[in-house]
Amino acid sequence: MRPPLKLSAFREVLALVWKNATPFVKRRLFITLALLTISSVLTGLGPVALKLVVDRFTDQSQRPILSGVFLLIALYVLSQFLSRAIGEIRGLVYARAERRMFRRLSEQLLEHVMRLPMRFHQERQTGAIQQTLDNGLQGFQMIMHHLIFTALPVLAEFGTVVVVLLSFHHPEFLALFCAAIICYAATFAFFAMRIAKAADTASAAHVASTAAMTDAVMNYVTVKLFAAERVVRDRLSGALQRTESEWVDFFRRYAMNGLCVAAIYAMFLATAVLYAAYQVQRGRMSIGDFVLVNTYMLQVIRPVEMMGYAMQGFSQGFAMLRSMMDLFRETPEPHAGDDEDPLTGPGEIRFENVRVSYDGKRTILRDVSFTVPPGKTLGIVGKSGAGKSSLVRLLTRLYEPDEGEIWIDGVRASALSLPSLRRAIAVVPQDTELFNESLAFNIGIGKPGSSRYEIEHAAKVANLHEFIMKLPQGFETNVGERGIKLSGGERQRVSIARAAMMRPRVYVFDESTSSLDSRTEQDILANLREISKASTTLVIAHRLSTVVHADQIIVLDEGTIVERGTHQDLLAQTGKYAQLWSAQQKERAAEESNVTALRRDALY
Length: 604
What we know:
Order of helices and strands: HHHHHHHHHEEEHEEHEHHHHEHEEEHH
Shape: elongated
Strand content: 5-15%
Oligomer: single chain
Number of helices: 18
Radius of gyration: 36 Å
Distance between the termini: 74 Å
């Protein structure tokens, strides 16, 4: 169970707001507070004018002067009009500030989440993160809205009422008001923690159900292929049932609180009216005082009641905001500045006794050491799960090694800023991730401000230009969410094109042609060798035909380098590499034999 909400959480939210507030926002907030104070004071003084009007009409000793009465009525109406008009202006002024704060906070949230380490994202569901952000921003809005439009106005208005009641010598009614406020406070305090706990649980259930729905939508192809609609529906239904149950519990507690508050309100209203009537009957209060007291009961106690609801809103807002604040407490990747100069060295890579594990339990790589001289090509081969892709994640510092060091041009990778390191390395991953944007955007994302000529040249390198030019919208064609409108091979060629755009010091090809046919693969490999001939290159491959040209090849097995050498050296060793090469050659021969047989059968 999470710890209860504390005052420090409120201070933390205010600090977050102030940190993200620009001078424009701060000016707007100060203007809002000034308008808030004026509006609340006018609201509190309005009944005084009404009291004086009633006293003029009920004073038997003198006839009321109509001009004075009209003036008081005008003042009363004007105070009510100005309090509401200023309230509307306050809302408009605050809306600009709130939208600017919302924008700044959203930008900071996205930036922070994007800079969290890869291990964090691997342990979270995409839908859960999205719903956490949505809940947090909604909770932030709820807290600020209750603070600006409920809590602060009620405090200012109540301060005005205290001054007025003391000025007119009605301390007994002030005591009655204070007693009512104490009862309200006790009731709200009793229910606040219960409501906050229910809101926290309901919010967590809502996040879980949204994560389940997002997971189902993102895997819709699998659902269709396996006719698993009912399975995912039942899975989501269970999550939604839990969410429904938790929210019903929340609203039940909220309703119980409302019933208790209504009872307190009715009790103190009756007490104030009866006591005021008694005082009027005994001649200790004027009818104007009676009107004043009852107006304040209707005008002030109700806002105080709203103050209690605001406290409940604070509790609910904090419950929704808590997970987002937990995200902010997650430690981002180090040295994540955006203004670092790119690396300009020749591109030497050196791994020294590197060891990395998953959660400190399952070892992925152990005692891995190798050196790639500048401008040379290293081939990395091995069966699935041998740790090949982990080398890429270590090189780009998506992972940090548990032991050992990684050096780039004689400098520890851990000492380099992440932007400068990653701009010096272009990675073509096995699984290409694309934005729901145009082909031009996806190709040029690694080089902001790139020209159309550069984008088209990169597309030609990846054998993609001819395909793109046949599309109705050409380079402006939208690829769909995660590139769903493209085939696997087309997505992979987009990935190759955007790597070619960067012209980095180091190229990393991680099964970069696995989705391509043999002819296209050979054409692209020739292009890749051409563009990377002046760069250090790492080629991770399952098909050994893609690494035969490498200056050195290492063979990984269960996270350890078991063989190393050139293609000819490894064949001469008759070890794992030679066995894998022989098996793949047989598979290739069998495929070619099958193709020949199919063609022969087609002729007859």
